[in-house]
Amino acid sequence: MAFKILVVDDELTLLNTVRAYLQQEGYTVQTATNGRSALLVFRDFQPDLVVLDIMLPEIDGLEVLRQLRQTSNVYVIMLTAKADEADKVIGLGMGADDYVTKPFSPRELVARIKASLRRLGGGSAKKELVFAHLRLDEEARLAWKEGQSLDLTPIEFDLLQTLMNHHGRALSREQLIDKVWGHDYYGDDRVVDVHIGRLRKKVEDDPTQPTMIATVWGAGYRFEDEMA
């Protein structure tokens, strides 16, 4: 079955171009030109990935993202024409998995989407990672803390999986980007810090004093939970 993608943008030329490129790759594509219709299409279409512009009429992209995150962990790539890095950080902090800054090449966006869907589709991993406080099923892409299911976005799951697979080893931002976002990622490496912050809120007892996902100053991050 083909992956389903929802593309939301009020620039019709861009919208139609991106849709054509994605359909050529075999994806099933639906589109929306404003935030209100995006929420309605999402409810009925249930896409695997959403490409979402920040600047939308009726309901802006950040509010659409906020409402999506109330019920879904669908992979979201934000589009922004703004040069202000704060907009990107806000979007990531609200739960976006990635962002692309306009103007962009449709081929680059499609490549980013394909890489994201490859990760979501899973690979040969068929094992569980079990530690004192956390358990992660790599094939089912599910995680639990002390028996309670964790509500993780795709990027949060991939980050946690990568850190757990490298237990006790410090990974730099560059290494995490290469393993989680892919070697062809060309965004700001601060994306790692934002997602680590969100992940800590879900796995740590006290996110302000993390005991499992430690910051290694000058080096990156390290997973320190004890193996079961």
Describe the protein's topology.
Elements: E1 4-8, H1 12-24, E2 28-32, H2 35-45, E3 49-53, H3 61-71, E4 75-80, H4 85-93, E5 98-101, H5 106-121, E6 128-130, E7 134-137, E8 142-145, E9 148-149, H6 154-165, H7 173-181, H8 190-203, E10 213-216, E11 220-223
Give an overview of the whole structure:
- The structure is a single chain.
- The protein is α/β, with parallel strands linked by helices.
- It contains eight helices and eleven strands.
- Strands 2-1-3-4-5 form a five-stranded parallel beta sheet, sandwiched between helices.
- Helix 2 packs parallel to helix 3 and helix 6 packs across helix 8.
- The longest helix has 16 residues.
- The chain is globular and about 50 Å long.
Give a quick set of tags describing it.
8 helices; 5-stranded parallel beta sheet; 2 domains; single chain; Rossmann fold; 11 strands; globular; 228 residues; 42% helix; Arc Repressor Mutant, subunit A; alpha/beta
